[in-house]
Amino acid sequence: MADGAAAGTEAKPKKTRPPELEDGLNLHVFHPISHRLALALRRTPVSPNMVSVASGLSIVAAAASYTLLPYPHNVAAGLAFHLLWHILDGADGDLARLTGRTSPLGEVIDGICDYSGHVVLYTALAFHAGGWCWMAAPLAAASRILQANHIESVRRTYLWRAYGVPWIANTRNSVAQRGIVAGLTAAYVRLGAWLNPQSGEADARVEAGGAAAQELSRRIGRRALFLQEWLGPNRRTLLLALSMAVGTPLWFFLIEATLLNLLLIASVRRQRRVNADLAAALS
User: Fold this and answer.
1) Scanning 8, 91, 118, 237, which has the fewest C-beta atoms within 10 Å of its C-beta?
2) CA 141 distance to own-chain centroid
3) φ and ψ of 237, to 5 deg
């Protein structure tokens, strides 16, 4: 009986992310499923990097579904594979934490798989739709890179400041990073720093401030999170499916290159104010 109770407790998903970083879909759908999948995989030979690769392949499968299947099956299958990416994208990190295999290299591999999969997706959609999509798709893809980098940097900066969770911006000298991996990591961090202005002084003061600085970071830093749900991937996936449902990815590309870039500008300005306020409060 005790063993059964323990097994039942072990199978229950545990909250591994602060609630202020969770939107409704992540909190109630994606992350609970991701955690259960990680629990199921942790005693198998499957590694977190394998899950990352599978997440990238699920985006490729979404691209194939959207462009090769007849309507409306293409929309249903494309959305299903894209939703699977959200689950796998959370499961690789959960599996890494459960098995003690977190590393800067794993973060880079995860990012490479995500970006590579979406390059295939955008290229396939542009080739499939043609016309104006050949112009709109590169603009949308470049916008997505900026938006995704910014929102991830905001989230990971908040996690580091408020909860002490390390990430590649403060573990750049890891021996796991050599050659092309080190170059990709450096480029990712530089872009994140550019989209997270005036963060250096705040980071230094948080690092020197201990637990009191973390508490202040939680209180002030939450103000930088208010656009994460709109700039994050969840609504974007649903927006693409809706755009494909009306017959073209063009609307998705245009919204990503215009409206979401306006939200990006607003979020960068908000992060700058948060950095300045946090540095002043800790001075």
Assistant:
1) 8
2) 15
3) -60, -45
